[in-house]
Design a protein that fits this description.
By secondary structure, the protein is of the alpha/beta class. The chain has ten helices and seven strands. The mean pLDDT is 91.
């Protein structure tokens, strides 16, 4: 039993099509996977069709939310949803809001860059994104293509990250709204790559009171010790352990591809069993 529950396709900011991602997963002998594109479920049916029963695909999504602090600051919080009903109207309404906000954000960033004399255009980004929403991977690659930076990391640090003078804050739904939308679609919500911030454990417990059911312990940015910490935390607080590679495609900058994060079989079994056992 080999699984990866955090994967992206070209329908958000990945480079593989759902078919290409599935073929890779089958090749490396994964038994279960979840397509969790940012703010869209467009790739799920394509993946299921491509799988032809060779691998079980759990319908998923990753919603990019904003946590608004009392002091006026904003923090990104990504919420994963699993076993969702893609046709649920509440979920699709939230995702549509997210996609509109994402497009507005990109248009503002491009306008700022053009005002400073940089050649980036919306047409370049749309051509690069293809069928998917425009994401950071598309933006940074276009910046490299048009000579604004030598590589993706330089493009990100100069023009995209929060410390950049061209940074534009994106409007997003709150973590609570994302959790409610996922739960209304018959799924369960897990916080993605929570990291090692000291206050994160308390915040996860706050979200649990609002319907959060899981925590992503296994992730390429988590050390072995941090993974163990989150597993123990999940066990103490009756949370589902989730995990995956956060694969965006085969390019080197992400340093992770599908199946590169190994999860114990008992963790995978509990994850799969949660479809029937959790009371949302």
């Amino acid at each position: 039993m080999q699984a990866d529950f955090h994967l992206h396709t070209h329908h958000s900011d990945g480079t593989w099509s759902p078919k290409e991602l599935v073929e890779h997963a089958v090749k490396i002998k994964l038994t279960h996977m979840s397509i969790t594109d940012h703010d869209t479920t467009y790739g799920i049916n394509e993946g299921i069709e491509a799988a032809q029963g060779r691998i079980e695909i759990i319908p998923g999504v990753e919603i990019n939310t904003i946590r608004r602090e009392p002091d006026g600051t904003h923090k990104d919080v990504h919420i994963l949803g699993y076993f969702i009903d893609q046709t649920n109207e509440n979920l699709q309404a939230v995702l549509a809001r997210q996609r509109r906000a994402r497009n507005d954000h990109v248009e503002k960033m491009v306008a700022n860059l053009q005002a400073a004399g940089h050649p980036l255009t919306m047409r370049m980004l749309q051509d690069r994104a293809g069928l998917g929403s425009i994401g950071k991977a598309h933006i940074t690659q276009c910046m490299v293509d048009c000579g604004m930076a030598d590589d993706l990391m330089e493009a990100y640090e100069k023009f995209v990250c929060k410390e950049s003078p061209f940074y534009v804050r994106r409007e997003s739904v709150s973590p609570q709204e994302a959790i409610e939308a996922i739960n209304s679609a018959g799924g369960f919500a897990s916080i993605a790559h929570p990291g090692k911030s000291p206050e994160m454990l308390e915040y996860i417990l706050t979200l649990k009171k609002q319907g959060l059911a899981g925590v992503e312990a296994f992730h390429r940015m988590h050390s072995v010790n941090l993974v163990r910490q989150y597993i123990r935390f999940a066990e103490r607080n009756s949370l589902i352990v989730t995990g995956g590679s956060d694969c965006h495609g085969p390019y080197k900058e992400y340093k992770a591809t599908a199946g590169s994060i190994s999860m114990p079989k008992d963790i995978v079994r509990k994850f799969l069993a949660s479809k029937n056992s959790i009371n949302l």
